[in-house]
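Quick illustration, no need to memorize.
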Amino acid sequence: MSVLKFSYIASILSISISANVYAESTPNPWIGAYGQLGLIGYESYIPKGASGTTTTSSGTAYSNTATANHANGPAANIAVGYNFGVSGNYLLGIGAALYPGHSRSAGSTLVTNGTIVKTGTYDVSNVFSFTIIPGYAIDNTRLVYAKVGYAGSTINANSPGNYPQQSNRVNGTVYGLGYKQFITESIYAFGEGNYAVNRAKPVTVLTDSGSTVRSTADATGYDFIFGLGYHF
C-alpha cells in the first residue's frame, strides 16, 4: 500500500514538473514580427496660439498673433514592428507607423495690431512615428502595451491672395496605450490611443505684399485607431 501511495505521489510530481518545464519552454506567441492596418480611427491636431512679428516691405514692424482651429477627422495608419521576449509574460518591442494622406483642412487667422490681416487654411500630412513598445501578455491571446517615441509630420498652410502654400516639418514625442487580441493563430484585432506633443518651431512666411511674418508652429494632437494585424 505504501509503495502504491509513494508511486502515485511520484507520478503527480513528475507530471507537474513536466508541465512547468513545457510552460517555460513554450515561447510567448506575441514574440516576433508583425504588420497591421489601422482601419477605423479619429484624430485631432490642436495648434497653440503664438505671438510673433510682421515686418512690412518698408521695414515697419508690428506684433502679431497667429491662431488656428483644430483639424479633426478620420484617421488610418500602417504599422510594422517586432516584439522581443524579456521575461515571462513581458515583452519589449520596436515599431514604426505611418498615417498616409492629409488631415482635414482647418482655418487659420493672423492678427496684427488687433486687426485680422490674414486668413487661410492648413492641414497635416506625412505623419509618422518610431516607438519603443513595452508590453505584457495577459495570456496567449491578449496583450496590453504602452508606446513612447519620436513623431514627425508636415504642416501645410495656404492663404490664396495673401501668401503661397508653406510646408514646414515639425517633430516631437508620442505616447500611447493599446490592446491586442488574437482572432486566429496569426490574425489579431487591436485598438490604441496616441498623444503627440510637437516641439515649438520658428516659422517665417513671405506674403504676396512683401511683408515678412515670423511666428511659431506649436501643437499637440491625439488619435484613436482600431484595426487588424498579422503576426508572423
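The chain has one domain: 31-231.
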